[in-house]
Amino acid sequence: MNWTAIWLTLKLASLTSAVLLVIGLPIAYWVSFSRWRWKFLVESVVALPLVLPPTVLGFYILVAIGPHSPIGRLYADLVGHPLPFTFEGLLLASVLYSLPFAVQPFASAFDQVDRRLIEASWTLGVSKLRTFFKLIVPLSAAGVITGAVLSFAHTLGEFGVVLMVGGNIEGVTRTVSIDIYDEVQALNYGGAAKTAAFLLVVSYAVLLVVYAMNRKVWAAWPQK
């Protein structure tokens, strides 16, 4: 097995989940509590990666961060090298690709929090920020765990976006999914089977731990 690719994939999935916790929670809070009439426009953009083909999303990300784009030029000026075909570019693409897998469970959990408790907290003089971290997030723990785990597991199996934005650079952007594809292309089915089995075990273990900790972790399968 290609342990370099495995380590890179686990690192990418972990960082993607961490970043989505930081940016996904505020987005989900706004989606859940905003009364803006046209907020469905933002919700549609967030959910777009769910229906958009990965290669199409990867292409647009590649164009957006390329050397001829404002973002790409700014990054190259600051860091000294282009953003595409780097781990940093791959991380950015993974965050965008897995965004709905984090935001939607977060927002769904926030929707289930009793608004009377939130209003009572505000009435007692607790700030909105403190109420969010001391009341809303703890009461939404199942949804927060779900979003983090889904974004982690989703990143493990990325292929189209990874290939478009990161390419296939050993030790830099070559993830497990790309490695399995290369092994199959080389007719090394034994090596591909071992890596695929390892990825299957890791994915199942992640979900197993979460279910053991919280039986209601997935809103899609509510307990009766």
Gap between N and C termini, in Å? 42 Å
Radius of gyration: 20 Å
> Main β-sheet, in a few words?
none
N to C succession of SSEs = HHHHHHHHHHH
Shape-level CATH architecture = Orthogonal Bundle
* Parts with pLDDT < 50 across at least 5 consecutive residues: 217-224
CATH structural fold name? MetI-like fold
Number of H- or I-type helical stretches:
11
Mean of all residue-level pLDDT scores = 88
Tally of extended strands?
0
CATH homologous superfamily heading: MetI-like
Quickly name the level 1 CATH class.
Answer: Mainly Alpha
Descriptive notes:
This protein is an all-alpha fold. It contains eleven helices and no strands. It has helices at residues 3-33, 39-47, 54-65, 70-79, 87-111, 115-123, 128-139, 141-156, 160-165, 176-185, 189-213. The termini are far apart. Mean pLDDT is 88; it is low at 217-224.
